[in-house]
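Action item from last meeting closed. Structure (184 res):
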């Protein structure tokens, strides 16, 4: 697989900056409303959450890295790249619907696909299908909501992931290099 270019140290990481500002704002609000105890409770809960998800993140990133190493960039570009059209979008939908786990699993996979040459439409279709068509939660949805509601929901969302993928490819496909650089 091709190596990603080293990050430009002069660029502002807007995601990190926004997160830090949100943390500072919420910490100030917690201090104002609850005092030091409220701030400490929030930090403690955040630490617990981090400890709980850290193993998931670790293994998800290992999975994404191994998948990236096993499938050549040439293959990704051929089957899922910008020029793959409907075929790539439908493959992205299929992969999204079959991918198990939550966002700690599928976002690292989507990131690995992005860096390996997948088109923006394929990525939008992948994430949309994962959220709307997840086959791993189908049995639970049938059991708790019943077949009628489940089938209606799936039917109503059937066209959304492929249409979103095609729309994203049309409107954002020409910006793919900038998008890749923005997340690298």
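Sequence:
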């Amino acid at each position: 697989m091709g190596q990603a270019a080293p990050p430009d140290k002069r660029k502002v990481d807007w995601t990190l900056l926004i997160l830090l500002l949100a943390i500072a704002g919420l910490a100030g609000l917690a201090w104002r409303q609850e005092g030091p105890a409220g701030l400490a409770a929030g930090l403690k809960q955040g630490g617990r959450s981090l400890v709980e998800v850290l193993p998931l993140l670790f293994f998800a990133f290992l999975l994404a890295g191994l998948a990236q190493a096993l499938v050549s960039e040439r293959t990704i570009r051929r089957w899922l790249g910008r020029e793959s059209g409907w075929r790539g979008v439908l493959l992205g939908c299929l992969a999204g619907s079959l991918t198990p786990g939550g966002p700690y699993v599928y976002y690292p996979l989507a990131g690995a696909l992005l860096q390996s040459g997948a088109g923006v439409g394929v990525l939008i279709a992948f994430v949309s299908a994962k959220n709307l068509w997840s086959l791993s939660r189908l049995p639970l949805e049938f059991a708790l909501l019943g077949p009628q509601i489940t089938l209606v929901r799936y039917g109503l969302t059937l066209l959304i992931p492929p249409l979103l993928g095609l729309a994203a490819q049309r409107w954002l496909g020409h910006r793919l290099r900038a998008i890749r650089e923005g997340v690298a």
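Note appended to the action item: Residues 14-70 form the longest helix (57 residues).
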